[in-house]
Amino acid sequence: MKVKVWGARGSIPAPGPESTRYGGNTSCVQLTLPDDSTLVLDAGTGIRNLGIALHPTNQPLHILLTHLHLDHIQGLMFFAPVFRSDSEVVIWGPASPESSLRDRIGRYISAPLTPIDVRELPCDVSFQEADSPEWQIGPARIQAASVAHRGPTLGYRVEVEGSSVCYIPDHEPGLGASLADLEEDWISGFDLARDATLLIHDSQYTDDEYPEHVGWGHSSLSDALVMGRRAGAERLLLFHHDPLHSDDFLDALSGEATARWQDLGGRPDQVELATERREFELRNGAVVTNNRPESPQPRLGAQ
Amino acid sequence: MEPSLQRPIELILARNLLSSLSTPAFLANGSGEIIFFNEAAGSILGQRFEETGTLSAEEWTRTFGPFTEDGQPIPLDEQPVTMALRANRPGHAVYGIRSHGGAEHTIETSGLPIVGTDGFQGAMVFFWPVDRAPE
Lengths: 303, 135
Description:
- The structure holds two protein chains of two kinds.
- Chain A is an alpha/beta fold.
- Chain A is built from six helices and 15 strands.
- Chain A has helices at residues 46-53, 70-73, 101-106, 190-193, 221-231, 247-263, and strands at 2-7, 28-32, 38-41, 61-64, 88-93, 124-129, 134-137, 140-146, 154-160, 163-168, 198-202, 236-239, 271-273, 279-283, 286-291.
- In chain A, the strands form two sheets. Chain A has an eight-stranded mixed β-sheet.
- In chain A, a hairpin with a 2-residue loop joins strand 9 (154-160) and strand 10 (163-168).
- The longest helix of chain A is centred in the last third of the chain and has 17 residues, at 247-263.
- Chain B has a five-stranded antiparallel β-sheet, with helices on both faces.
- Chain B has helices at residues 9-19, 39-45, 49-52, 57-64, 80-86, and strands spanning 25-29, 34-37, 91-98, 104-116, 119-129.
- By secondary structure, chain B is of the alpha+beta class.
- In chain B, a hairpin with a 2-residue loop joins strand 4 and strand 5.
- Chain B is built from five helices and five strands; from the N terminus they run αββααααβββ.
- At the A-B interface, strand 8 of A face helix 1 of B.
C-alpha cells in the first residue's frame, strides 16, 4: 500500500511563502492499494491536486470523509474525477441523526456556496454512511469509529496485506483526561490506532497553545506523541498543522517532537511532521520506502 | 486486529465530563454496569472508583443502595430512575443510600440516558445529598 499526503494543513488553507515546505492545502491523503485502486482520506483542498494527478480509471474512487468540517470537504467541488461522466465516486462519511450524508454534503455543494448541485455532478456519485464498524473495499479492510471531536467524526483504519494506516486527523483524546493515565479502553480512537504501521494523527497545537484551545477538537503535540507511543504505532505522522504555523515554526516543532518522542522511548525515525507530497510505501507491517517530495514547491498551474 | 475493547465514544466523553465535575455522578453502560464514578461521588460513597472498579448493578445496589426507609435494598427493576432510563427517558428520585463506612445519606438523584448514533449506550446519573449543605 502506498500513502501520499496531498494536504496536511488544518482549519483553513494556508498558502503563501511561509508554507511552501509543509504545504498550505487542507487534509487529504491518497492510499494506493495493491490492485492499483485508490482510496482517498478526506477531501480538503489537497484533493484538487490529487485529482489533477490521477489517471482516469474504470475503478470506483472511494473517498472516506472523517467529518464534514469545511477543511475536510472543500476540495470536493474541485476534484477533477467528479466532473468526468465516466467516473464512479463513492463518498463515505459519518452518520448523523440530523440528516443523510448526501443532504449534509449537499449544503456545501449547492447555491449559494457553489454554482451547481450534487445531482448535477457529471460523475456517478453515491453516498455511504459508515454505520458499520468494518467493511471491505477491494483488498482493503476498513474500520471506522467515532472519535473525540466536535460533531459526528470518524477515525479510519485501513488494513492491507499486513500493513495498516490509521487516520485520525481531527482528534482531542486528551479532552478532560490525562492520556498518559487513562486505561486503553477509555482512550478515544485507541482501537483504530493500536499497532498501526502508520498513524496519521492530529497535532494542531503546541503544548503552550493548547490551554487556549481546550475543547476545540484538536490535540496538543504531547497528546499526539503519547497517543502514538501508547498505541504502539510503528510510524507517527503529525498532521493537521495549524494555519498560523509557518515552515520555520514547524521545523522547530519537528525537532521538539523528535526529541520528546525519544524521551518516550521511541526511535527518532519513527516520528515526523506531515509534508505535502510526502510518500510512504507500507509492506508487511513496515514502512519500506520513504519518498520525500523532490520539490516542496507546488507545481506551476497545479495550485 | 484484536477484538474491539473500545468504549463507545459517547461513554468516553461522558466519563471525561464527569471526572471534571464536582457534582457527584456515576456512569452506567448499556448493560447497567457502573463503569465509572467521580471523586465527588466517591467522597459520599466512602470509596474511590480506583478501589471498586466496575460494579454490576446488583453489586452497586447491594453495597450502596438505594434502600427503602426500613433499610431494604430496592430491587433494580423497581428503581424509578433505572426504569426510566431503560425506557430512554430521564428519571428523578429521592433515595436513601449507605456509604462504604456505613453512613446513611438521603440523596436526590437524576439520570439522563446517553443515546448515540448506535442507540442507547448508557446513562449519566447525578446525585445530591439532601442532608448536606450545598458546597
